[in-house]
Write a structure and sequence with these properties.
By secondary structure, the chain is an alpha+beta fold. It is built from five helices and seven strands; from the N terminus they run ααββββαββααβ.
Length: about 160
């Protein structure tokens, strides 16, 4: 059961602390893997706090499939994902994968859905940040803390044979 929207600001604040940004990259992946096993792939751990998905990309250099649990912001039929990388100075690898191979897939509720990714253009970033911060209050603080422009992608559902 997802976290009530009224509690998101407090949890969002905690997720932006230096402590969480330092330990999150080490503790979250194993916890997400454990939750994937417990829920049989239907619910990422982060899905308890905010809408979440598993993004399946093709490695930019390796060509191998990579999977990453991410929070997302619903935007009509589309999904918005942001490469915050726990506010670290480098973009997460999945963003490079999407730039190189925009055809991807997401798993939502145990269902795999093909998507096409596009980088949100500069002239849409401010309006997109408003939507993102409605979903997760203070999220743009990651961009300030990272000292880089976070990559934001729109994932559009596509029909594939």
């Amino acid at each position: 059961m997802p976290l009530p929207r009224a509690l998101r600001p407090a949890v969002a604040w905690a997720s932006r602390t230096r402590l969480f940004r330092r330990v999150g990259p080490a503790i979250m992946p194993p916890l997400e893997r454990a939750m994937r096993v417990v829920s049989r792939g239907r619910m990422p751990l982060s899905g308890l706090a905010v809408p979440s998905l598993v993004l399946h990309t093709t490695g930019a250099r390796s060509g191998l499939e990579r999977s990453t649990e991410l929070m997302y912001c619903p935007d009509g039929e589309d999904m918005l994902v942001t490469g915050s990388n726990f506010a670290r100075e480098h973009h997460p690898a999945w963003t490079s994968n999407l730039l190189a191979h925009p055809d991807a897939a997401v798993t939502l509720g145990g269902r795999r859905i093909p998507v096409a990714a596009e980088l949100v253009p500069a002239d849409e970033r401010e309006a997109t940040w408003v939507r993102l911060e409605r979903n997760w209050p203070g999220y743009r603080g990651y961009e300030r803390a990272a000292g880089r422009e976070l990559r934001i992608f729109r994932l559009r559902r596509v029909s594939r044979p």
